[in-house]
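> example.struct
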């Protein structure tokens, strides 16, 4: 159902139950769709991962972002990475990964996960528009040591449509953080991705288990259909 006055819509097929979206209080969060994680030859692949599993997210996510913009829903992007001197990267994190290619080391696309490097930035297909918030985060969660909470509070945001990579790490951490802060979250199932198919399946099931312990899930097809109802008539296709 959509109201012309409240610009509210819903996703009846969401799991575990119908999910309501109010355009005035909703934001689309796009987590870490960075070249270091998604491009062949990058950091993700250097760890032995199949980046093709993450790249399947790009096309449906591009479509979702386009509709969200038309509907007037803010799009917020995040990038995981560190200051050039690595002063914001704890030693425990710095030791992770392939010993020959760790955070800060030279990689195929510049220093790995260092802010300002080519690999740290978002893939071209999902590039932020001028004016869209881009959150640089040093941790897995998008709230830790960032301005995300302040941005959402200023905008009056209470609902997050969550997308990005990886499902079981940065997406899960962010959804759990958001849940603790009182946000209603819907994770878009084909707009999040993992290097491990089993982690993808179980990670999504964990979110909506027990009546939505962390949030809701729904495929992009259903989310897009709901958001189209929010697009002003003059902008609708």
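> example.seq
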């Amino acid at each position: 159902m959509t109201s012309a006055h409240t610009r509210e819509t819903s996703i009846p097929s969401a799991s575990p139950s119908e999910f309501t979206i109010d355009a005035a209080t909703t934001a689309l969060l796009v987590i870490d769709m960075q070249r270091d994680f998604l491009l062949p030859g990058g950091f993700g692949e250097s760890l032995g991962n199949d980046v093709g599993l993450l790249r399947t997210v790009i096309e449906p996510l591009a479509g979702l972002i386009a509709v969200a913009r038309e509907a007037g829903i803010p799009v917020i992007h995040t990038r995981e990475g560190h200051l050039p001197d690595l002063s914001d990267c704890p030693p425990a994190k710095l030791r992770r990964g392939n010993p020959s290619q760790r955070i800060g080391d030279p990689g195929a696309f510049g220093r790995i996960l260092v802010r300002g490097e080519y690999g740290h930035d978002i893939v071209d297909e999902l590039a932020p528009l001028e004016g869209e918030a881009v959150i640089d985060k040093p941790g897995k969660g998008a709230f830790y040591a960032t301005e995300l909470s302040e941005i959402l509070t200023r905008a009056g945001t209470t609902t997050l449509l969550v997308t990005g990579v990886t499902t079981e790490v940065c997406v899960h951490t962010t959804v759990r953080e958001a849940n603790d802060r009182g946000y209603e979250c819907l994770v878009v199932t084909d707009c999040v991705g993992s290097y491990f198919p089993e982690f993808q399946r179980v990670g999504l099931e964990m979110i909506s288990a027990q009546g939505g312990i962390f949030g809701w899930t729904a495929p992009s097809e259903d989310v897009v259909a709901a958001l189209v109802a929010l697009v002003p008539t003059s902008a609708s296709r």
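> remarks
Strands lie at 8-11, 19-22, 26-31, 75-80, 106-107, 110-111, 133-137, 159-165, 184-193, 216-218.
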